[in-house]
Design brief:
CoA-Trfase_fam_III; CoA-Trfase_III_dom_1_sf; Rossmann fold; alpha/beta; three-stranded antiparallel beta sheet; 17 helices; 14% strand; 396 residues
């Protein structure tokens, strides 16, 4: 049995891959092996204090939620693989406003269930037409990629040439949400960093609506600050908080942060580390979530007739979170500041190999264990705002 197959089997991902009434499948590519490689570098940076099985982190959320495989519907049920005029596409409906947006994409009056209208529209249009319309509407959708040569992503190529560094005692300001960014922050916290999670009043982390125990796992021990960037005084407080940080994690397009007065280039020029996690790169306006990003990058299993099937549970998220943490725990030869553009699509694409194919998983399968949170409760939203701002000497 190859190293690739063994790593996939250990990851628990095959249990989440395939039709619900069919056998679990070993996906193509080497994502589980790459996840282990990131975890090994994190262990090196922490001198062995943080030792995790990177492959098993890929299916950890499902260990909490009980998600199972559903073939062309994602494990979390928010994304579907649909036939297009020229192939297949992944379409997500994960946010409260997405049914309305998908109705606009399909030129249909959708109130409850957008999928019939969306499936009809997608079937009569090309993947490129879907991607263009989805970008205009802010919908997470695009054509399923094919495995082929890709440029090596910054998050995998450069990490191999960097030197590990300790982040113990560093201050991390985390603007991210859902899974990839919070996993990065969680790993930095385990490595001894102080993590301050920042949310806005109108846009709390959507993961708070998900499994509470999994949310607690990723956020236990972090401080929580809520600030409104539309308020002048609070925007100034936000700038002061960022200026005090050693590492910033965010998952927003640059123009959104610019409206808040936050400048990644200036932060990096001052010697800080800025970790930007986006669906398709900082220069792209496309949005995405873990399932559609992975499928659009080409990470899908294939049924015997070539039908694409989802791999794991939002696998682009934990894979990118591991890559981001690996980079944040690295330094260049000159020790200067660094802007890491963690393009989730490229992170996934660089794990693929045209020579590897979907295959039956067999009997040697493990599901990911449920790690226990370091403390009993996740931070209450905004609980630490006053204390953090007082420490900075700024008013709210």
């Amino acid at each position: 049995m190859s190293r690739r197959v063994i790593d996939w089997a250990r990851s628990g991902v095959p249990v989440l891959t395939g039709f619900g009434d069919g056998p679990p499948l070993i996906p193509p590519g080497h994502a589980a092996t790459v996840a282990d490689r990131h975890a090994a570098r994190i262990a090196e940076a922490t001198e062995g204090r943080v030792r995790l099985a990177g492959a098993r982190l890929l299916s950890e959320r499902a260990a909490y939620t009980g998600f199972t495989r559903h073939g062309m519907t994602s494990a979390g049920r928010h994304c579907r693989l649909l036939p297009t005029l020229d192939g297949w596409a992944a379409v997500s409906c994960a946010r409260p406003d997405d049914p309305i947006l998908l109705g606009a994409l399909a030129c249909a009056d959708v109130r409850d269930d957008p999928w019939p209208a969306v499936a009809d529209w997608v079937r009569s249009h090309t993947g490129a037409e879907l991607a263009e319309r989805a970008e205009l509407l802010g919908v997470a959708a695009g054509p399923v990629g094919t495995v082929g040569p890709v440029e090596t992503a910054q998050s995998t190529a450069q990490a191999a040439t960097l030197l590990p560094r300790s982040v113990a005692g560093l201050r991390v300001v985390d603007f991210s949400a859902l899974w990839a960014g919070p996993l990065c922050a969680h790993l930095l916290s385990l490595a001894g960093a102080r993590v301050i999670k920042v949310e806005t009043p109108g846009r709390p982390d959507g993961a708070r609506r998900g499994d509470s125990e999994f949310y607690r796992l990723l956020h236990a021990g972090h401080e929580s600050v809520v600030l409104d960037p539309d308020d002048d005084a609070q925007r100034d407080a936000l700038a002061a908080l960022v200026a005090s940080a050693d590492i910033v994690i965010e998952a927003s397009r640059p123009r959104a942060l610019a409206r808040w007065g936050l400048d990644a280039d200036r932060f990096v020029a001052a010697g800080g580390t800025w970790v930007s996690i986006t669906a398709h790169g900082r220069e792209s306006n496309r949005i995405g979530f873990g399932d559609d990003i992975a499928a659009c990058a080409g990470l899908v299993a294939r049924a015997d007739d070539g039908t694409p099937l989802f791999v794991g549970d939002a696998i682009a998220d934990p894979l990118s979170g591991l890559a981001a943490a690996d980079l944040a725990m690295s330094r260049g030869p000159d020790g200067s500041g660094q802007l890491w553009d963690v393009d989730m699509s490229s992170v996934v694409a660089t794990t693929l190999d045209p020579a590897t194919q979907t295959e039956p998983a067999g009997d040697a399968l493990l599901t990911a264990p449920r790690r226990r949170p370091s403390i009993d409760q996740a931070p209450v939203s905004g609980r630490d705002t006053a204390a953090v701002l007082a420490e900075l000497g700024v008013a709210r």
